[in-house]
Input
Amino acid sequence: MKPAWDQLGDEYADSSSVLIGDVDCTNVANIEMCGKLEIESYPTIKYWMDGNVKDYKSARDYATMKEFVEVVLQKPCDVVTLENCNDKETGYVKKMKIKSAAEREAQLVRLFGMKDNDMKGELKTWLVQRTFLLTAMKEKKDEL
Output
């Protein structure tokens, strides 16, 4: 299952709405978190929907997990209508809409340059979300 999981993680590495990650519950540093998530056997797959943790119970091959992500989890922020955008994304899109296309492009280049820097997970996620939003704004510039 690990190769399929890693492939899925690579596929969604730039997603603004899906984060694929793993935690080693045999590592002492992770025992408390794994206990809170009620992980009792390995490997265990959990996912979050609307802030609630759920158990993944489908097949663990790449095709099945990818379909699950596409059908159930992936809901990208629409930069035109702001549908499926959280408050943070909405604020960022509104802020960037008033900027020129050149300013948005400069921001995108800056963020792509930071992508490989070492940073905390939540900062990395927000960086990826912003690159996704700016790329979508670039693609839909005539609709903004």
